[in-house]
Specification:
Layout (H helix, E strand, L loop, with lengths): L2 E7 L5 H12 L4 E3 L8 E8 L14 E9 L1 E3 L8 E4 L5 E2 H10 L2 E5 L8 E2 L2 E2 H6 L9 E10 L7 E2 L4 E8 L5 H11 L4 E11 L2 E2 L6 H11 L26 E4 L1 H8 L4 E2 L3 E5 L19 E5 L5 E8 L6 E7 L6
Parallel strand pairs: 3-14, 16-19
Antiparallel strand pairs: 1-3, 2-3, 4-13, 4-14, 5-6, 7-12, 8-11, 9-10, 11-13, 14-15, 16-18, 17-21, 19-20, 20-21
Helix pairs in contact: 1-5
């Protein structure tokens, strides 16, 4: 069973909880996700199944979209509503124009200090594990990109005071912490603040309209008895072909001889390319740091349009050479 699922994670579950649930429902051990979502948040979680898990490193840089709420007047040790209060200010006022200025400042490339309640590691331990032990360690600022940051609905109040909240939409690069953005907005306005609500609305090309609930997946598993007849899932529209997850990369269709060379791990001269394919939805990647993750990477197909995996081109186009980077097992093609 190989493919991609776009799931709607409910609040209260960790991303790993969702992965475990999918494993149980589909009877498939090889399941992973392309980006963690906070336990208290809801929204899109992209799940890779079977050999699609081999493609996760090439899917992780997709842009993310969120709808979030920032609460002004109180900050917490977790930067969200579930933490302990660390600062509170009941008497303050700022204007709509002040808020718009703050939103403008945090668009484009910005630096964030990751929160302690994150999945990043420090000396082999997750930061959230250290945070639960009451420990705080130094974290280096990281550059992220915020492509869009806009208030939602009729948001203007004239003046803002203790307990007021702002609902906003944000589109950002991989690695952006929305709880930290909420805290940073408050710091810019010289007011304590925290994130009081979060839903992930978009991952790359996929939006909430594309997402499936775990209950819907369970119903499909029961109907098709997927635990014993895994191939039935390929007939369901919920399972997305593996190569769709890497369509932001250009592609190449190889001749029969070229495909055989590639399958055996050999480099393939560009003369064996029957057709070059344009990338799809490249703007949805929002590549924010490491060009080697996309750069000259390419998705590769044989002459019967079967997806072989990921390769890398040198010198590009005619006269170039294609080298295998991550090929899929023959049974998954």
């Amino acid at each position: 069973m190989d493919g991609i699922l776009v799931l709607l994670k409910p609040p209260g579950m960790t991303s790993h909880d969702v992965v475990d649930a999918v494993r149980r429902l589909l009877g498939e051990r090889r399941v992973g996700h392309t980006g963690t979502l906070d336990p208290g948040a809801a929204g899109i979680l992209v799940i890779c199944i079977g050999n699609a898990t081999r493609l996760i490193p090439f899917m992780e840089d997709c842009i993310k979209g969120y709808r979030a709420e920032v609460w002004f007047g109180r900050s917490t040790d977790t930067q969200d509503a579930g933490g302990e209060t660390v600062a509170e200010l009941r008497e303050f006022a700022f204007t709509d124009e002040d808020l718009l200025a703050a939103l403008t400042v945090f668009q484009g490339e910005v630096e964030q200090i990751p929160p302690m309640v994150s999945a990043l590691k420090h000396e082999g331990q997750r930061l959230y594990t250290l945070a639960r032990q009451g420990k705080t360690v130094e974290r280096k600022p990281r550059k992220v990109k915020i492509f869009q940051l806009e208030p939602v609905g009729s948001w203007r109040r004239g003046e803002w005071h203790y307990g007021d909240t702002l609902l906003f939409d944000v589109v950002c690069s991989k690695g952006t912490y929305i709880r930290t953005l909420c805290q940073d907005l408050g710091e810019y306005l010289q007011v304590p603040s925290h994130m009081s609500f979060l839903v992930r609305t978009r991952v790359g090309r996929w939006s909430l309209q594309d997402a499936l609930t775990l209950e819907e997946l369970a119903a499909a598993a029961d109907e098709f008895d997927l635990k014993t007849e895994a191939s039935s899932l390929s007939n369901l529209s919920v399972l997305i072909p593996m190569d769709v997850g890497v369509e932001h990369l250009p592609g190449a269709v190889l001749s029969k001889r070229g495909a055989e060379r590639m399958r055996h791990g050999s480099s393939v001269p560009a003369e064996y390319v029957e057709k070059w394919l344009e990338p799809t939805d490249f703007e949805l990647m929002g590549v924010a740091g490491d060009p080697s993750l996309t750069g000259d990477l390419i998705r590769i197909y044989d002459n019967q349009d079967r997806f072989l995996g990921i390769g890398r081109t040198s010198r590009g186009g005619a006269g170039g050479i294609l080298r295998p980077v991550r090929l899929l097992p023959a049974e998954s093609r």
